Amino acid sequence: MRANRSGRIVARAWLGAGFVFLYLPIVALVLYSFNDSPIPNVWAGFTLKWYAALPGDREIISGLWLSLQIAFFTACGSVVMGTLAAFALVKYKRFGGRTLFNGMVNAPLVMPEVIVGLSLLLMLVSVQRALGFPERGMLTIWLGHLLLGMAYATVVVQARLQDLNPQLEEAAMDLGARPWQVFTLVTLPMIAQALLSAWLLTFTLSLDDVVLSAFLSGPGSTTMPLVIFSRARLGLNPSVNAVATLIVLVVTVGTVIASLAIARAERRRALDIAAAARGG
Amino acid sequence: MKRLTALLAWLLRGRTAVIGMPYVWLLVFFLLPFLIVLKISVSESEGVQFKDVLTLKDGVFQLVIKLSNYVFITEDDLYFKTYLSSIKYAAVTTVLCLAIGYPFAYFMARAKPTIQPALLMLVMLPFWTSFLLRVYAWKGLLTENGWVAELLTLFGVDHLLLGAGLIPALGKYMNSPFSLVIGMVYTYLPFMILPLYGNLAKMDLRLLEAAADLGATPWVAFWKVTVPLSKAGIIAGSMLVFIPCVGEFVIPELLGGPQTLMIGRVLWDEFFSNNDWPMASTVAVTMILLILVPLAVFNRYQAKSTEARR
Question: ipTM for the complex?
Answer without folding.
Answer: 0.84
